[in-house]
Amino acid sequence: MHTLFSFYQSIKSGFMYVYQLLWGDLITIPLPGGSGLGLSLLILLLIPAGIYFTVRTRFLPFRLFPDMLKTMAEKKNSSHKNSISGLQALIIATATRVGMGNLVGVVAAISAGGAGAVFWMWVTALLGSSTAFIEATLAQLYKEKDPLYDGYRGGPAYYIHHFFIKKKSKHRRSIIAVLFALSGLLCWCGISQVISNSVSSAFENAFQIPPLYTTVILVILAAVIVLRKNATVKVLDIMVPIMAGCYFLLTVFIIITNAGKLPAVFQQIFAEAFGLRQMAAGGFGAVLMNGIKRGLFSNEAGSGSAPCAAAAADIDHPVKEGLLQSLGVFIDTIVICTCSAMIMLLTPAALTQGQSGMDLLQSAMRYHMGDFGVIFIALILWLFSFSTFIGILFYARSNVAYVFGDNWLSQTLYKLLCLVMLFIGGLEAYTFVWDLGDIGIGLMTIFNMIVLIPMSGQAIKALKEYEKNKKT
Question: For position 451, what pLDDT does the model report?
């Protein structure tokens, strides 16, 4: 028993070392006031890459925003029964991007970094839009037929494979591609626990329902959906527009009823963003980094998760799916995260002082909407979290197939593992397993970025071809 415990502690220590390497401050830049600007490995990778892709695409998020909206209305390219349209791929990616991070995570970023964190969250999203375009376009360029689910599949594991293994072979795998796929499967297992724990906590606060009852119902509903062959997309087609639309409309109502406070709120955001007051007080680093980290965590651009959905789209040009996934980052961060920020910033600070997380958000909603606001947040969090779980299992399909081959056994076993994690997470918060989710997405980002920059020329070439065809 002692030997097993020592082995567990060694494994845990190893994972924590990797976690610190990925998310901890790799370098610290001294700032006036005695503070420092800590930069993690992932920030050092993603922010410069986002700037590089934005310049190379000639500021695509601004230039081609009308094309993004136009592409949403297009139908899928073929009449294949089980393929999905570009819009459906966007819905799946939005389901996984929009989650607890858009609610509690944004509130936490403002609590730690002040209102100025919102501005840097916006900047990060605009840079991330270009990164999302590159990885989604590459996923389309290297997609392949899916023999199990029909339609198409792909993602970073597949374009990484083609980068390292030039000759196509069913019996060879790229080590980096396998590591990416395994990192994704690790990440999505960890997220399963976070999802159920968040939902059970919110329902206990709002309705005093014991976590066991909430968790059992959540797992049963999830099992009914994910253990069927092709029910995932149909469910998300209904859930995602409803949940995002309701949350957006309620926030618009709150903004309109507090319209007189808006000038002061935006003045606070921009004043604190550039840290004139915070720089003097030694807190500019917190403002900047909380905004950047929240933006990166929320939109997931560069992590390689959304391309797993982008590759499945049956669309007539790879660039169009890239444009849609770029729009997905805008929807996630500029729209949904800003909604959460406004709920927080339009609430008197005295009412939320000393609170954090879900309690803080529910207190803000109680101020704006009374008890209905508390119930609404619990229900919308349930929808956000449930759709995230369904979406990540859609992502997992192609990664399970790449590592373990095309068979229903491995697909079903992974789904069952995630359902078990969903059940455990609803009853108990194991922070170590939560950290595994962060480690997984961090490793995914590292392996994805290894090839994203050298392969980006192919996506840029496709973009030039698309724009040339559009002119003619």
Answer: 92
Q: Which amino acid appears at position 91 of this protein?
A: I
H or E segment to which residue 278 belongs: helix 276-281
CB 251 within 8 A of CB 339: yes
Count of CA atoms in the C-beta half-sphere (13 A) of 126? 14
Amino acid code (one letter) for 106: V
SS (H, E, C) 84-134: ECHHHHHHHHHHHHCCHHHHHHHHHHHHHHCCHHHHHHHHHHHHHHHHHHH
Q: Whole-model pTM? A: 0.87
Helix intervals (H) in 114-231? 116-141, 156-164, 175-207, 211-226
User: Which amino acid makes up residue 419?
Assistant: L
Model confidence at 42, pLDDT cuts 50, 70, 90, reads confident
Ramachandran category for residue 30: left, alpha or beta (phi over 0 → left; psi -120 to 50 → alpha): beta
Tokens 């994704």 correspond to: 184
Q: Can you tell me the distance from the alpha carbon of 446 to that of 176, in angstroms, rounded to the nearest whole number?
A: 10
Taking Cα atoms as reference points, which of 445, 308, 416 lies closest to residue 21? 445
Q: Which residue has the tokens 């610190």?
A: 20
In 3D, which of 430, 437, 431 has the Cα closest to residue 18? 437
Q: What is the mean pLDDT of residues 280-296?
A: 59
Biggest alpha carbon–alpha carbon distance for the chain? 72
27: helix, strand or coil:
strand
In one-letter notation, the amino acid at residue 97 is R
pLDDT at 180 over 70: yes
How would you classify the pairing of strands 27-30 and 36-39?
Answer: antiparallel
Token code pair at residue 386: 């449930």
pLDDT surpassing 80 at residue 221: yes
pLDDT in tens, 423-444: 888 777 655 556 677 788 888 9
Q: Which tokens go with 31?
A: 């700032």
Phi-psi region of 150 (alpha: psi -120 to 50; beta: other; left: phi over 0): left
Closest CA to 402 of 139, 195, 86: 139
- Give the list of residues 6+ apart from residue 299 with CB closer than 8 angstroms, or none: 97, 124, 125, 128, 132, 328, 329, 332, 333
Distance separating alpha carbons of residues 75 and 87, to the nearest angstrom: 8
32 with 48: CB under 8 angstroms?
no
Question: Using an 8 Å Cβ cutoff, are 183 and 431 in contact?
Answer: no
Say how far apart CA 222 and CA 350 lie, in whole Å.
40
Give the separation between CA 326 and CA 128, rounded to whole angstroms. Answer: 8
Mean pLDDT on 160-170: 75
